């Protein structure tokens, strides 16, 4: 029987883990001896960085032809339990029932999910764009506002969280509301941030551009406060302010997928397994952790991979290669990604592009917007189902950042 590499997840890290593993197996001429299996609910890649946008077409491209082209098998299901001693996974099949899958190497690439603290009403009333289905629900809600009686609550959107997702969602929201309610509609978009300024994590050089973009979009900002309660028609802040709204959007923080907790070993404060330089889980033989489930050093300066597709693309390539290399007898490849950039979409104002961990501003407005659209609409999408073309970009050194 062939040895098995099982990859949990078909997001950016999971997809590229599988493609990279298939490449390494082919180069070692071990195709009949090692197989690659991807376990995920559907054979799709959700283009998660774009889910704040109004247009959701082609946000979950089908991977079946791509997997077939490189010899990767897909199992529709969810990994529920990981038995690290027996090297066995219990998979809840989408068609019903459970299946036990033994592995020789396992790659955890199940990503992350939005952090949802114990805020009254959050689960019942808040929207988000964290996953494809929740982005669809938000889109349907916004488009349905026009059918509701006009009121302050109907015409107000509150975005909770002033990080990059919150900034992108808030500056895009006026565009979406004009499309939903009419070009001349009166509405409010309010961004709530616990910090003293939205986007503060990107440093002092970027902050004025974020402030300018928010003002350009007409977004109101409340800083130094948090959401303490949400109901069907309002949001209450820690300052005591109550804002009438029927659309509260939650974007505040991320946590590693819960499966990471089943991997033995040390975790960081957001639930990621602390991996070694080859993205192995040090306390679990045969297991690799990648994407948003791993805390991995990007360089020798103390910088750590962020929960972003930029890092997931490279983390996936390295983890998949190394999982296959251990079985095929090939050389392992240490993870390193010293170049770091950010490109933040800021609605009609444009975008902001920075380079380096100190976030030096390089492009703004229309120039940065063109780059952002190239990244989001071309670079991060899966390649065509051409085996040779895939293998040309699936090696662990390949990086797509500008």
UniProtKB/TrEMBL annotation:
Annotated family: Belongs to the NADH dehydrogenase family.
Domain named FAD/NAD(P)-binding: residues: 4-308
Cofactor(s) listed in the protein's UniProt record: FAD
Keyword terms: FAD, Flavoprotein, Oxidoreductase
Protein name (Swiss-Prot/TrEMBL): FAD-dependent oxidoreductase
Matches recorded under Pfam families: Pyr_redox_2
Domain of life from the UniProt record: Bacteria
């Amino acid at each position: 029987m062939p040895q098995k590499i099982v990859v949990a997840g078909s997001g950016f890290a999971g997809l590229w883990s599988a493609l990279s593993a298939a490449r390494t197996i082919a180069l070692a001429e071990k195709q009949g001896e090692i197989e690659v299996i991807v376990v995920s609910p559907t054979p799709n890649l959700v283009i998660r960085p774009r889910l704040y946008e109004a247009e959701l077409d082609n946000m979950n491209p089908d991977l079946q032809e791509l997997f077939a082209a490189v010899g990767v098998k897909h199992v529709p299901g969810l990994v529920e339990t990981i038995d690290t001693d027996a090297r066995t996974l219990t998979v809840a099949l989408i068609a019903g029932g459970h299946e036990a899958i033994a592995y020789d190497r396992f790659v955890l690439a199940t990503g992350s999910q939005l952090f949802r603290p114990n805020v009254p009403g959050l689960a019942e009333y808040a929207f988000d764009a964290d996953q494809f289905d929740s982005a669809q629900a938000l889109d349907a809600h916004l488009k349905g506002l026009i059918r509701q009686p006009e009121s302050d609550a109907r015409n107000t959107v509150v975005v909770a969280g002033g990080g990059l997702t919150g900034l992108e969602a808030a500056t895009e929201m006026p565009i979406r509301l004009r499309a939903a309610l009419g070009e001349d509609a009166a509405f409010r978009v309010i961004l709530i941030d616990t910090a003293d300024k939205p986007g503060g994590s990107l440093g002092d050089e970027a902050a004025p551009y974020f402030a300018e973009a928010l003002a350009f979009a007409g977004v109101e900002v409340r800083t130094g406060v948090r959401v303490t309660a949400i109901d069907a028609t309002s949001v209450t802040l820690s300052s005591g302010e109550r804002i009438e709204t029927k659309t509260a959007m939650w974007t505040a923080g991320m946590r590693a997928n819960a499966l990471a907790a089943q991997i033995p070993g040390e975790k960081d404060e957001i639930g990621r397994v602390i991996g070694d330089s080859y993205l192995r889980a040090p306390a679990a033989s045969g297991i690799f952790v990648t994407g948003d489930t791993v805390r991995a050093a990007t360089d020798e300066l103390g910088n750590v991979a962020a929960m972003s597709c930029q890092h997931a693309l490279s983390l996936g390539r390295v983890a998949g290669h190394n999982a296959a290399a251990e079985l095929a007898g090939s050389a392992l490849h240490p993870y390193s990604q010293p170049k770091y950039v950010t490109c933040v979409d800021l609605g009609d104002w444009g975008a902001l592009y920075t380079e380096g961990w100190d976030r030096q501003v390089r492009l703004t407005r229309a120039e940065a917007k063109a780059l952002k659209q190239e990244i989001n609409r071309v670079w991060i999408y899966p390649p065509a189902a051409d085996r040779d073309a895939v293998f040309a970009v699936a090696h662990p050194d390949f990086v797509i950042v500008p």
